[in-house]
Amino acid sequence: MVPACNGQVLYALYIGFILATPGLTKHKIAAISLGSISIFVVNSLRVIALCLIKVNAPQYLAFNHKYTFTVVVYSCIFAMWMLWIKYFATAYNSPDAESTK
Q: Where are the alpha helices (DSSP H) in the chain?
């Protein structure tokens, strides 16, 4: 399995985004830990689903591998980023951020 298929790129994108945005260190550690577990679970379910598709309907494998699961996995990561920004990124939640709007 190549790095793109086992989620290494996904971990790097997610962790890089969390580290690049403002926030308390304890929140970053929690977000990185929970996010990494979530990425692992989503990616594992993706691989299981692809195996089931390969066995039961191999004609749909290429499409689902390239499009369906790419959208699903990246949507999950995007949702986790949005939760981070909305609830934990300190610059976004600070009183000073409200006065600059």
A: 3-6, 8-20, 25-56, 61-63, 69-87, 90-93, 95-99
Domain ranges of the chain: 3-92
Axis-axis angle for helices 8-20, 25-56 (nearest 10): 160
Question: Can you give the pTM of this predicted structure?
Answer: 0.80
Look at 37-41, 52-56, 79-83, 97-101 and tell me which has the smallest mean pLDDT: 97-101
Digit-coded pLDDT (tens) for 29-63: 999 999 999 999 999 999 999 999 999 999 999 99
Round to whole Å and give the CA distance between 84 and 101.
20
Residue 42, amino acid: V
| Cβ 67 vs Cβ 46: under 8 Å | no
